[in-house]
Amino acid sequence: MSALSRGMMSDDANTLVLSPVNLSAYATRSSVNSDSQEERRKLAASSWNDVCTRHGFSIATLPLGRITPELLARTFDVAKQLFTLDDDAKMKLRRHNPADNMGYAPLGGEAHDTVRGADRKEAFNVRSRRCHTNDYTGCPPDFQPVVEEFWDALEDTARALATCAADAIGVESDFFAKTLKSWEHCTIRFLHYPACDFGGDEDSSPIRCGCHTDFGLFTLLFVKDGESGLQLKAVDGSVEHDDPNLPWRNVQLPASEDPNGVVMLNTGALLARWTNDAWRATAHRVVVPSEAQARQSRYSIAFFVDPDPEMEVAVHEKLGTPKYAPILAGEYLRMRLDEIHLAQKK
Ligand SMILES: O=C(O)CCC(=O)C(=O)O
Q1: Is this entry keyworded Oxidoreductase (predicted)?
Q2: How much is the average pLDDT of 214-239?
Q3: pLDDT for 66-75, tens place per residue?
Q4: Cα gap 162→75, rounded to integer Å
């Protein structure tokens, strides 16, 4: 069993055991609006609020809407088939282009951490088929149908979570969900971190995914077999930036959870801004924690949920004096991407 799945240890300075939040009252459609359904929704909203006002990372048990462990397993299978293609075949896939953020990004092509160097990962990005043409030429035959089924399930669940987030902070229920119409800026990112050398500890080993904070509303993250390596910056009131004085903490799942039957939820910087910093966005990274982990591949899938680009992001009057000026979601994303490109050029 991997370190991420174990969760034997309780929270301490080095470890954060993620809190499960029961979001099924939002994710499962019910025609009956009973009192108990209402109570379950209140409880869900308040427990998600509790986590997100501290650091923003939690887990929810599957099924969550139409995201089932079975669909997740099929999706990981096709992702693994894609990354197992030989290098020549992978280089013939549609190449990732930062301008449209679709296609295959080979190993060494991205660096979140300019000091530690390129991330030891390869990725394949898919965007909404309603707005973009994903080119699946050369992908394994089942990849497209399974990914499209997964996308539809993610979209449904993300809409339900957006409603939960609005209820949680006490604004109109459709405040966030109404900004998710075209899904134009959302992305599924399939990730493969291949086996690599172990340098003796996490600092002298290659970095699998450098320190960053997700930009958008929130991210649904699935880690196959709960493989370890994900770390958060010290939490409980920390800001989103990578403060060198704060230690990293290893993320663990509670021992009772099946690592292939959960989704991690992680709030992004846009949501922090939109909630006037009531909700946090936490810096995180993926390291190689041990020789055993270095020897094996790690697979994960992230669904980045971003509002449609033309939607205005303005702090709601109920959330106090705005710290931030209104901005269009598309402009915000461009601003954050420019920051990364500038940092990478330095
Ligand atoms: O693979 C993981 O566990 C995290 C990936 C991640 O944080 C990202 O791609 O933004």
Answers
A1: yes
A2: 85
A3: 999 999 999 9
A4: 23
Name the closest-CA residue to atom 3, ligand 1. Answer: 230
Q: Indicate the helix (H) or strand (E) that contains 263.
A: strand 262-267
Tell me what the pLDDT averaged over the chain comes to: 90
- Assess contact for 164 and 267: CB atoms under 8 A: no
* Minimum mean pLDDT range among 66-80, 110-124, 254-268: 110-124
**Domain extents in the chain:** 15-27+34-345
Give the integer Cα–Cα distance in Å for 255 and 142.
33
Cβ burial 171-191 (10 Å sphere, 16+ → b, else e): beeebbbbbbeebbbbbbbbb
Q: Which protein residue's CA is at the shortest distance from atom 9 of ligand 1? A: 302
pLDDT tens digits for 36-53? 889 999 999 999 999 999
Q: How far is the CA of 199 from the centre of ligand 1 (A)?
A: 21
Cα–Cα distance, 305 to 132 (Å, whole number): 16
The neighbouring-strand residues paired with 16 are: 251
For ligand 1, say whether the CB of 302 is within 6 Å of any of its atoms: yes
CATH label, 15-27+34-345, candidates 3.50.50.60, 3.40.50.1820, 1.10.260.40, 2.60.120.330: 2.60.120.330
How long is the chain? 346
What number of other Cβ atoms are within 10 A of residue 119's Cβ?
25
pTM of this prediction exceeds 0.85:
yes
What does the pLDDT look like over 5-25, one tens digit per residue?
Answer: 444 445 666 889 999 999 999
Instruction: Produce one character per residue of 222-232: b if its CB has 16 or more CB atoms within 10 Å, e if not.
Output: bbbbbbbbbbb
CA distances from 193 to 115, 130, 147, 334 (A): 19, 29, 20, 27
Q: Are strands 57-61 and 262-267 parallel, antiparallel or unpaired?
A: antiparallel
Give, to the nearest 10 degrees, the angle between helix 69-84 and helix 143-169. Answer: 130
**pLDDT at 25 (0 to 100):** 95
The answer to whether the CB of 191 is under 6 A from ligand 1 is yes
